[in-house]
Specification:
With about 55 residues, the chain is an all-alpha fold. The protein has three helices and no strands. The longest helix has 30 residues, at about 20-50. The radius of gyration is 18 Å and the shape is elongated.
Length: about 55
């Protein structure tokens, strides 16, 4: 598992240092948060659906 984690790490600070302009930097920051936001959204959706199941009554 640690082997896979090493490949998934992204050097955001290195990308920001080599960014050609500020709009590229903004894109990098937004792009780094999108996967986290999607996972939180999916987790909330799954929680909401399981909380409101009618067959558990």
């Amino acid at each position: 598992m640690k082997f896979l984690f090493i490949f998934l790490q992204v050097a955001i600070d290195e990308k920001l240092k080599n960014a050609p302009d500020s709009s590229y930097q903004t894109g990098i920051i937004i792009g780094s948060f999108v996967p986290f936001v999607l996972l939180v959204g999916i987790a909330y959706y799954m929680y909401y659906r399981s909380k409101n199941r009618k067959d558990l009554e």
